[in-house]
Design goal:
CATH architecture of the largest domain: 3-Layer(aba) Sandwich
Largest sheet: 9 strands, mixed
Number of strands: 19
CATH topology of the largest domain: Alkaline Phosphatase, subunit A
Structural class: alpha/beta
Shape: globular
CATH superfamily of the largest domain: Alkaline Phosphatase, subunit A
Distance between the termini: 46 Å
Bound molecules: adenosine monophosphate, zinc ion
Number of helices: 13
CATH class of the largest domain: Alpha Beta
Number of domains: 2
Strand content: 15-25%
């Protein structure tokens, strides 16, 4: 080939190569950017003080702990896990409760209804696994709310149908296998989820031995996780975020709100019970129901949907019912049918209350190369975790309600503007 022609050919070849690399969204696994997100459901901000937790303590000593993680309202499992995943408030994620009715579709969402849980149409926004997968990073979810559904036509590379009975260690083994698999499927972002602490809190109350033992089991799982990750040389290079979705508070027989004594339940079309009870009155009954609740307002607050305080970030979604009643901390809203069973089941605890209550705060620990060591920081809202993970993974977040500024106090190096 003549010299000039050869040079033109070489330049063209280089342009094609550079273009190919630039356009190819399939990144190679980067061993310096790995994030593991672990959730222990219902792990209250102060639970580490209840018992000996050597493994959590060593994570705290070598990492950073927040004095609390502030949940979104209502402080329930599904809204919170999905807000953590998307960085969106409930009115923007569509997850306004664990149980919801969608008036446009005339359909219900319930967390034990597998068809609904696996139906992507309920899940708004962009979960972190989609954000990362779109930017060429493989993800794996060993359970997370939303990860069993096709959202935006996508799923994590690895995901599992929720199985509460799957042993804790087996979940860890699976995730580590995903993170160490050689080849194109190597996962650089993974999640783990455990419901044990939440379940024991509900059933036996926050001061029970059962909760203490569940905290100790969680601690042993952290020990196992560290040992297995060290064995695979993952520990030192992985940023690990250990958190929970909300806190927990004891209920009692002297803190009851009998809804059927305040309003005529026959005037309602739907009542979605809970510390935040959502009520849809029958046509023409809204004013009666609201006025009855307003005039008896004691140990709870009642709002028409449109007057819900802005700080709840809830009212701008069609799945919120017309009237919302928020019990004071520890109070239980119920009717005659449930009262005896409820009292017989005491001591027990719950969550779902106002997210500005300290008792509703969750715990948060982060450990790894990106995080400060031995630091304590003030509580912050869980909607910022999505931005934090994007920062750790060097990806571009989708539009969301959080900000990296709110969590940069956790980081070793202050991030500069993206
Ligand atoms: P809550 O009623 O808010 O306390 O919800 C906690 C329950 O959510 C736990 O008992 C879990 O078993 C359940 N849960 C968590 N993740 C999932 C999931 N992906 N699919 C179905 N149930 C789940
Ligand atoms: Zn929960
Ligand atoms: Zn719970």
């Amino acid at each position: 080939m003549p010299f000039m022609k050869r040079r033109v050919f070489t330049i063209l070849f280089l342009i094609v190569c550079v273009g190919f690399i630039g356009c190819n969204s399939q990144q190679q696994s980067d061993p310096t950017k790995k994030t593991l997100l672990v959730s222990f459901d219902g792990f209250k901000y102060n639970y580490l003080q209840k018992t000996d937790t050597p493994h959590f303590d060593s994570l705290v000593a070598g990492g950073v702990q927040a004095e609390g993680l502030i949940p979104v309202f209502p402080s329930k499992t599904f809204p919170n896990h999905y807000s953590i995943a998307t960085g969106l408030y409930p009115e923007n994620s569509g997850f306004v409760n664990n149980t919801m009715y969608d008036p446009k579709w005339d359909e219900w969402y319930r967390i034990r209804d597998r068809e609904a849980v696996e139906d992507g149409k309920w899940y708004g926004g962009e979960p972190i696994w989609n954000t990362l997968e779109k930017q060429g990073i493989k993800t794996g979810t060993m359970f997370w709310v939303g990860s069993e559904a096709d959202i935006q036509g996508m799923r994590p590379t690895h995901w599992k149908t929720y199985d509460d009975d799957m042993p804790g260690k087996a979940r860890i083994d699976t995730v580590i296998k995903w993170m160490t698999d050689s080849g194109e499927q190597t996962v650089d972002f993974a999640t783990l989820y455990y419901s044990d602490v939440d379940t024991k809190g509900h059933r036996y109350g926050t001061d029970s031995d059962s909760v203490r033992h569940a905290i100790e089991r969680a601690d042993r799982l952290m020990g196992y996780l560290k040992k297995q990750m060290k064995g695979e040389s993952l520990w030192d290079k992985t940023n690990i975020i250990v958190l929970s979705d909300h806190g927990m508070v004891n209920q009692s027989a002297d803190k009851l709100i009998r809804l059927d004594n305040i309003i005529d339940l026959d005037d309602t079309k739907r009542v979605i019970w809970g510390p935040a009870t959502m009520i849809q009155p029958k046509k023409g009954k809204k004013e009666d129901v609201y006025q009855a609740l307003k005039s008896a307002e004691e140990n709870y607050r009642v709002y028409e949907k449109k007057e819900l305080p802005e700080r709840y970030h809830l009212k701008n979604h069609r799945r919120v019912e017309d009237i919302v009643m928020i019990a004071d901390l520890g109070y239980t809203i119920l009717d005659e049918d449930y009262q005896d069973d409820f009292i017989a089941s005491l001591p027990r605890a719950t969550h779902g209350y106002d997210n500005n209550q300290k008792a509703m705060q969750a715990f948060f620990i982060a450990h790894g190369p990106a995080f400060k060591k031995g630091a304590k920081v003030d509580p912050f809202q869980n909607i910022h975790v999505y931005e934090l993970i994007n920062h750790l993974m060097e990806t571009k977040p989708a539009s969301n309600d959080g900000s990296l500024d709110s969590v940069k106090v956790l980081l070793n190096e202050i991030p500069t503007d993206r």
